[in-house]
Amino acid sequence: MSDAKPNTAPDLATLTQHFGIILGTERFDDCVTFYRDILGLPLWFEKDGLCCLRFGAGYLMIETGGHARDTRKPNSENPTMLRFNVMDVPAVAETLRARGISVDVRTFDWGTVGTFTDPDGNACEIKNADDPCFLGSE
User: For residues 28 and 34, what is the distance between their CA atoms, to the nearest angstrom?
Assistant: First the structure.
């Protein structure tokens, strides 16, 4: 018989006040401009070398200390992609293109995506939000 007591403490998800992503960048000013001014993520707060933007119910904190590439970083350098679920991928892709962002739109049997990169070469993607996974249907 084990003497282990059941874990009745709340889990980390319950204890968390804000979920966030921290993005280390080399081209800090360009990345802040990209996410805040071009993509339109609302500013939460700024400090020296740090910019925190609202990212849905969470935040995207842009900091210095990353490594930039002129093209998309390979997954071996950055296996993470920032995803923006939108209702109309082609329309949003056109809006991004009008703002100077190159977007590659592709349709698969599981959905439509538009992939683009930030000034440091980090991958970002828009995806159709009418996907049953995001609507709660099966």
Answer: 10
Give the 3-state secondary structure percentages of the chain, helix then strand then coil, rounded to 5: 20, 35, 45
- The model carries a pTM of 0.86
Is residue 5 situated within a structural domain? no
45-59 per-position pLDDT tens digit: 999 999 999 999 999
Whether the Cβ atoms of residue 54 and residue 66 lie closer than 8 Å to each other: no
DSSP annotation of 9 reads S
Tell me, what CATH number does 130's domain have?
A: 3.10.180.10
Q: Is 7 helix (H, G, I), strand (E, B) or coil?
A: coil
Based on the structure, what is the number of domains in the chain?
1
